[in-house]
Design the sequence.
């Protein structure tokens, strides 16, 4: 696949340095998704976020009772009426999340709070994660998954952090597994200092750099709570999107689609959330069946080598562009949870994502519990709008057509697009030639009644992420 370069048609730096017009209300093509939580549940906050440019509101079922989310949705309905602006509704599922079991209290607004239970961890300290039903202490952390210890081996890396943790937080802890005792206790040593607070989640980092060796948990794709919330909330509100956490393969999309159809949500679209290396290996099948893709850069960045993340992101975005499916990224302006202005790296990251062709940006803790939810939306809209001004739409369109023509010309005599498409089955990104890292089969979006357009686009080759030893995983 040819890489798509970006260039500025006007190299006059003076024109670029001109301040953005604060009264510029031009349409922003990049959609902004805000996560609704304590920092922005109030009607006036949501009114301001809609006026700032928020296009969709995300309600995270991982944390918070259904009554809280219902109140948030009621406030959103009121905010839409006041602003006369439409806002899509996205439900983000709990799915296969593994958490530390700790007591919490319900605040007056209905939000569960674990403040005041901070755990101070020193580098080199020994901690034990256990599946036993015991109280959480500073050195003994009970996990919610009963088979957790059976997945561990000495030398494995675990990440324990606050849910939706950002670079501005100190609640990020890396642990190295020392031993597993009695099939229930995982003894670890801390690799850094941390102050653990709030809802704590556990992520098992893949132990291999070029294949899948970790055992995967067998938690259901949709928890009982997910199903209860989806059915209950859909009875009173129009649910536009489901963000399917920890999507692993095309089977997950089919399972979710079957459930949604069974409860009458046939028009609700599914965004597959890529959070592990396994989802990358099965990406082509996921892309074929999902209505959109969310690149969950937090967990994905833990499971993949840091030096590969930029290439992974660009490849996923370009793949989605070529088959006409929307793609969103997460974790963009983390520091705006505590600062009214992003870092230089964050601002550049957002602009580059827009220039790469990302369709939307999802704000997590910045709006959920951050101090500047409205400013975060305003900043993303401002950065995206400036990047869109220099985006070369003509080149982008020509690039899509050139790729489609190349693939069409590359079909063997008598072959059909359907016969050449690996997406019609469970394809993955690892189907690469060992010598040159390319695949001869075309990646194509199968036309259907749900297609965004009748134009057939295809990917002639996929970028490999590392040593190609995945063939035995198909």
Sequence:
């Amino acid at each position: 696949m040819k890489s798509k370069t970006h260039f500025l048609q006007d190299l006059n730096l003076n024109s670029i340095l001109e301040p953005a017009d604060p009264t510029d209300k031009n349409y922003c093509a990049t959609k902004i998704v805000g996560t609704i939580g304590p920092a922005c549940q109030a009607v006036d906050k949501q009114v301001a976020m809609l006026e700032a440019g928020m296009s969709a509101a995300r309600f995270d079922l991982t944390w918070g009772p259904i009554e809280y989310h219902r109140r948030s949705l009621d406030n959103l309905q009121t905010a839409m009426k006041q602003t006369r602006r439409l806002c899509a509704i996205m439900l983000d599922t709990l799915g296969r999340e593994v958490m530390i079991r700790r007591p919490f209290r319900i605040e007056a607004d209905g939000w569960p709070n674990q403040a005041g239970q901070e755990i101070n961890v020193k580098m080199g300290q020994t901690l034990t994660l256990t599946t036993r039903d015991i109280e959480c202490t500073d050195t003994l952390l009970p996990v919610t998954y009963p088979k957790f210890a059976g997945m561990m081996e000495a030398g494995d890396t675990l990440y324990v952090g606050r849910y939706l943790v950002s670079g501005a937080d100190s609640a990020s802890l890396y642990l190295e597994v020392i031993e597993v005792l009695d099939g229930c206790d995982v003894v670890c040593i801390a690799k850094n200092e941390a102050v653990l607070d709030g809802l704590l989640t556990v992520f098992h980092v893949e132990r291999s750099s070029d294949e899948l060796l970790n055992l995967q948990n067998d938690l259901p794709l949709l928890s009982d709570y997910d199903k209860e919330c989806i059915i209950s909330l859909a009875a009173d509100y129009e649910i536009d999107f489901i963000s399917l956490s920890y999507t692993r393969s095309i089977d997950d999309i089919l399972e979710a689609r079957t459930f949604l159809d069974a409860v009458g949500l046939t028009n609700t679209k599914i965004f597959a959330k890529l959070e592990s290396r396994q989802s990358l290996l099965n990406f082509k099948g996921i892309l074929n069946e999902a209505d959109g893709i969310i690149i969950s850069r937090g967990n994905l960045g833990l499971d993949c080598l840091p030096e590969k993340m930029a290439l992974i992101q660009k490849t996923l975005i370009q793949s989605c562009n070529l088959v006409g499916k929307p793609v969103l990224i997460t974790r963009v302006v983390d520091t705006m949870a505590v600062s009214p202005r992003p870092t230089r790296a964050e601002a550049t990251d957002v602009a580059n994502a827009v220039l790469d062709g990302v369709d939307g940006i999802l704000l997590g803790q910045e709006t959920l519990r951050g101090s500047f939810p409205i400013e975060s939306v305003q900043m993303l809209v401002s950065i995206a709008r400036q990047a869109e001004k220099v985006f070369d739409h003509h080149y982008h369109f020509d690039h899509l057509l050139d790729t489609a023509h190349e693939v069409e010309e590359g079909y063997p005599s008598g072959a059909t697009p359907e016969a050449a498409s690996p997406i019609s089955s469970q394809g993955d990104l690892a189907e690469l030639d060992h010598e040159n890292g390319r695949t001869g089969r075309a990646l194509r979006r199968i036309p259907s009644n749900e297609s965004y357009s009748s134009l057939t686009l295809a990917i002639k080759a996929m970028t490999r992420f590392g040593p190609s030893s995945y063939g035995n995983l198909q």
